[in-house]
Backbone:
């Protein structure tokens, strides 16, 4: 471990937010503010011995619905956070019911007869002596975001009309709409109102709710996502809950963040730190868990003063609700093992709770238009990383998505054993919801994703899992063991590292031992930036893969399930009351069923391995995947470009119909350029794109270019192009030696060839590949053009296309647009 030479982080913020007193209590440095009418009395101290005396209070105004705020202390930092209690209901917008915005550090200041709300710079500060602190304060800007005149004051406290404060778009709704290309909006003051009778205040903070209407600015056109969910899309109305939360006192003892801890690292730059230490200060977010009075500090698990409790929204329907409670409570065992007794639990919220209160850790049931994600997040104290409140949003569409996949696999309807098959569908759904609840609550506990846990003895709930489905003895898909039950070893490590107590032992030494033990057990850890998307390089971290450590075996398993499910495809995959156009959607789920396992094999081509750590610790650098494995992966994926792997069976095509009248294709369908009917060519192109978008990703080709230069046994970028083009245009016979029986097999194969060529030319037309990579691919293309000049009609046309492209007279537009691949996530 590197020695820690940083100052105490809670003292860091104490120094930054040190109040330069303008007046002593009871003495105003300014004359009394003039008022235009009678002002209400000031609020008294908040209730209870733990209430911040005279910090903030609400004054009732019987005359109107103004929000009158009493401010007892100026210059004192607090947390400011805006959440939505009534959202927009769109996955594309992300403005969900229960969504919390970014946490800000704010303070109230007095200038003249006005009160200002100032946002402090929480990311940049300086510690040290008075001169160092002053230099830090004066080097970085603050933001004055609101002000109001003082209506009345007494003993240094003041009352202001906070209506304008409540009507400020602190959540950043307008900014989100612009970023998502939905138009330019701003708060309409004539259609926005404070909800004064719903405002609350107390020891945990003050909440100012308001109905915000954001109106489109002249000249702007509302985006498609707004038009889909808002009755009058030029006026979007939501309810914002503005929270003003005192910083915990006393501050919790901070725990330093380590890159291999699996935690979210929050922090700031301390510009007063020594140059050797660097400026970055990172902390591990976690809830405060303190032993109850009288509990022993060593030995058996201890009870805590305040357990971590998550309350489940009663809106979650049964039996999903029971699954959510069960999955969330998987974390109880980890806290027990970490040395706590009854420190964590998940239960259904009682009737009528105020789940907008930041004293409540909530799991909300959120409805949206379209496929969407679930989320777990926490409100943290920036001084220490203490999680003050955890919030989880479970998207109800998850039930619909996993049900659709389960029905496509089991084809239950109208079968003699329908009840048995429907039971398998429900079991798969509930198993997924247990895992999802544990996953999102894990985020709220402070934990990041781990997309390498398929290599663990048992996967982490912080992974993105694909259901493990096999082919049973009867030749049908078997999902009996789709998702593991309970936590994996990595999840127990997460809780021990974040929350573990080490009485009588140096904390840094104990934490280092935990990380070392996890590494010795082979508990790999790779998170988002290193695992998501075709450009990701790490060979062991792929999202949405089944818990099978061998990527080749997992792909073979997925392909076998795909074939079995397509063989059994019929109208039985769809509930009898649904319109037959949705059969296309179920066919898409099966045709692309292998997509994530394919990506896991592709990740080996140009793949590397590395870990997270500190310079003072042991560890290797970045190590490429072996050349033999890379070539095996390339050849295996090239096999997927044969017609027998690409074409939908004739019996599947025969049952598909266009969406019925008053229905339409959604993003879940394949696109069609065949009018209203299903387009088999488009389905083939999208399936080919699963291979080409992975293997021809420019970042991967650049990595391969360097790896091949260092080790010629590694396939070069040109070799990748060569392999794909030959596999698509002149495929080897299927392993069985039998000719494919798919309808239009020859047309399917030619479509694959053109789709691969279009993808190659698309890469060549981009700016990302290095010149040496581009030159190598260009040389291979010239060889193909020469070779195909004497081939069949399609090959001769391909040769002319390549020659024209390389000569700068691109014929690529004649190949049509890039195919759109329907979404596969979240599952």
Residues:
């Amino acid at each position: 471990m590197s020695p820690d030479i940083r100052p105490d982080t809670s003292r860091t913020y104490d120094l930054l937010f040190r109040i330069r007193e303008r007046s002593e209590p009871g003495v105003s440095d300014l004359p009394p503010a003039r008022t235009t009418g009678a002002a209400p009395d000031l609020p008294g101290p908040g209730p209870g011995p733990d209430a911040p005396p005279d910090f903030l209070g609400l004054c009732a105004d019987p005359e109107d619905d103004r929000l009158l705020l009493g401010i007892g202390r100026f210059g004192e930092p607090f947390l400011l956070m805006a959440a939505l209690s009534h959202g927009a209901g769109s996955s594309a917008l992300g403005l969900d019911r229960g969504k919390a915005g970014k946490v800000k550090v704010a303070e109230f200041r007095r200038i003249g007869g006005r009160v200002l709300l100032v946002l402090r710079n929480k990311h940049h500060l300086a510690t040290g002596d008075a001169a160092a602190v002053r230099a830090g304060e004066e080097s970085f800007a603050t933001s004055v975001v609101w002000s109001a005149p003082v209506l009345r004051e007494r003993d240094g406290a003041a009352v202001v009309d906070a209506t304008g404060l409540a009507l400020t778009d602190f959540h950043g709704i307008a900014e989100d709409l612009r970023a998502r290309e939905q138009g330019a909006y701003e708060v309409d003051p004539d259609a926005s109102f404070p909800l004064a009778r719903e405002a609350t205040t107390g020891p945990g903070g003050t909440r100012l709710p308001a109905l915000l209407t954001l109106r489109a600015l002249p000249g702007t056109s509302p985006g498609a996502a707004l038009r889909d969910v808002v009755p009058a899309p030029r006026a979007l109305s939501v309810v914002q809950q503005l929270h003003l939360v005192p910083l915990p006192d006393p501050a919790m003892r901070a725990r330093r963040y380590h890159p291999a801890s699996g935690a979210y690292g929050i922090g700031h730059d301390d510009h007063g730190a020594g140059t050797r230490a660097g400026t970055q200060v990172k902390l591990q977010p976690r809830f405060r868990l303190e032993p109850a009075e009288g509990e022993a500090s060593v030995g058996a698990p201890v009870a805590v003063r305040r357990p971590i409790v998550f309350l489940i929204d009663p809106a979650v329907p049964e039996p999903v609700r029971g699954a959510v409670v069960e999955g969330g409570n998987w974390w109880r065992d980890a806290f027990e093992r970490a040395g706590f007794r009854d420190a964590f639990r998940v239960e259904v919220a009682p009737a009528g709770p105020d789940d907008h209160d930041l004293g409540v850790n909530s799991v909300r049931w959120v409805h949206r238009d379209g496929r969407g994600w679930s989320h777990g997040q926490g409100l943290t104290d920036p001084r220490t990383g203490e999680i003050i409140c955890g919030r989880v949003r479970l998207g109800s569409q998850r039930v619909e998505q996993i049900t659709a996949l389960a029905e496509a696999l089991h084809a239950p309807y109208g079968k003699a054993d329908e009840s048995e098959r429907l039971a398998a569908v429900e079991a798969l759904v509930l198993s997924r919801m247990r895992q999802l609840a544990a996953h999102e609550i894990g985020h709220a506990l402070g934990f990041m994703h781990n997309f390498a846990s398929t290599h663990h003895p048992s996967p982490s709930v912080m992974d993105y899992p694909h259901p493990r489905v096999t082919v049973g003895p009867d030749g049908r898909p078997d999902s009996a063991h789709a998702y593991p039950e309970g936590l994996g070893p990595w999840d127990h490590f997460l809780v021990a590292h974040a929350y573990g107590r080490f009485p009588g032992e140096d904390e840094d030494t104990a934490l280092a031992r935990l990380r070392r033990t996890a590494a010795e057990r082979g508990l790999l850890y790779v998170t988002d930036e290193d695992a998501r998307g075709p450009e990701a390089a790490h060979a062991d971290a792929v999202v949405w893969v089944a818990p099978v450590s061998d990527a080749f075996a997992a792909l073979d398993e997925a392909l076998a399930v795909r074939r079995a499910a397509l063989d059994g495809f019929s109208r039985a995959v769809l509930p009898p009351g649904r319109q037959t156009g949705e059969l296309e959607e179920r066919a898409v789920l099966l045709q692309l069923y292998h997509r994530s396992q394919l990506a896991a094999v592709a990740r080996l081509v140009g793949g590397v391995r590395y870990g997270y750590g500190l310079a003072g610790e042991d560890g290797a650098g970045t190590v490429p995947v072996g050349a033999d494995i890379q070539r095996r992966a390339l050849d295996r994926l090239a096999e997927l470009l044969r017609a027998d792997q690409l074409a939908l069976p004739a019996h599947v095509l025969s049952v598909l119909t266009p969406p019925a009248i008053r229905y339409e294709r959604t993003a879940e369908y394949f696109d069609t350029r065949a009018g209203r009917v299903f387009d088999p060519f488009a389905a083939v192109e999208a399936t080919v794109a699963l291979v080409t978008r992975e293997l021809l990703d420019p970042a991967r080709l650049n990595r391969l270019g360097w790896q091949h230069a260092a080790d010629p046994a590694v396939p070069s970028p040109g070799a990748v192009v060569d392999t794909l083009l030959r596999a698509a245009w002149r495929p080897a016979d299927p392993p069985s030696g039998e000719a494919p029986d798919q309808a239009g097999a020859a047309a399917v194969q030619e479509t694959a060839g053109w789709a691969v060529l279009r993808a190659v030319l698309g890469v060549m037309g981009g700016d990302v590949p290095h010149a040496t990579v581009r030159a190598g691919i260009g040389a291979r293309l010239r060889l193909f053009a020469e070779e195909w000049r004497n081939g069949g009609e399609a090959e001769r046309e391909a040769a002319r296309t390549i020659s024209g492209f390389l000569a700068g007279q691109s014929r690529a537009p004649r190949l049509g647009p890039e195919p759109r691949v329907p979404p596969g996530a979240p599952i």
Summary: The chain has 23 helices and 26 strands. Residues 31-246 form one domain. The longest strand covers residues 143-154.
